[in-house]
Amino acid sequence: MIAVIDMGISNIGSVMRALERIGAPLAEKATAANLDDAAAVLLPGVGAFGDGMASLTQQGLIEPLRRIAAAGTPIFGICLGMQLLAETSEEHGHHAGLGLISGRVVRLEATRPGERIPNIGWSDVTPTRPSIFFPAGTGGTFYHVHSFRLAAVDPSVVTATIEFSGTRIPVAVEQDNLFGVQFHAEKSQDDGLDLLAAFLAHLRRLGRIN
């Protein structure tokens, strides 16, 4: 079973439909009671960092997520979900995150004429190394909606970037059993479905799903 966390600010319906399209096994809404039995956990989200952490707290999911992460359960954060894996965020004040990946979430900065924040639209994603998401080392074009970005402490966890305002911005991370993408894979057509399928293939190699 793949557990999908619904923070109430998530596009969980789009994620569920994308999983169905690639033939994923049963996906269920995550609860504090079923996380320990999950083959993997998906953490999708849109909106503000503080609201996302408040929702996880209200559902009693903070400590269970940290526990299963330490036990090796794969956790895959999408958009806000990736940012919540970090230690802190400066969005609308200072907020503590799950602290699973060393780094903080900082505001995007637009320095070129015509660039806008939030960054909304399709961006070419460039892998920085072979990874579960990009096993062939080739990227794709993915749909982004974000005003903040992850600043990772360890650059080796970053597996793909986009160019924004003359800077390479991390948009995909992998660290052991932790995975994240800044873009909306579930809304990124064939490239997004291929990425989700690559994650499922990884789970099958691990023997976590059939």
Summary of the model, kept short:
With 210 residues, this protein is of the alpha/beta class. The chain has five helices and 13 strands. Strand 12 (167-175) and strand 13 form a beta hairpin.
As residue ranges, the low-confidence spans are none
Provide the β-strand percentage band. 25-35%
For the report, how would you describe the main beta sheet? 9 strands, mixed
How large is the count of helical segments?
5
H/E series, N to C?
A: EHEEHHEHEEEEEEEEEH
The count of domains is 1
Structural class: alpha/beta
The CATH superfamily bears the name Class I glutamine amidotransferase (GATase) domain
CATH class: Alpha Beta
pLDDT averaged residue by residue:
94
| CATH architecture label name | 3-Layer(aba) Sandwich
Distance between the termini: 10 Å
Question: How many strand elements?
Answer: 13
Strand arrangement, major sheet = 2-1-3-4-13-12-11-8-9
Indicate the overall shape. globular
Instruction: Please tell me how large the radius of gyration is.
Output: 16 Å
CATH fold-level topology: Rossmann fold
Portion in helices = 10-25%
Question: What features would you highlight for this structure?
Answer:
single chain; 210 residues; alpha/beta; nine-stranded mixed β-sheet; four-stranded mixed β-sheet; 5 helices; 13 strands
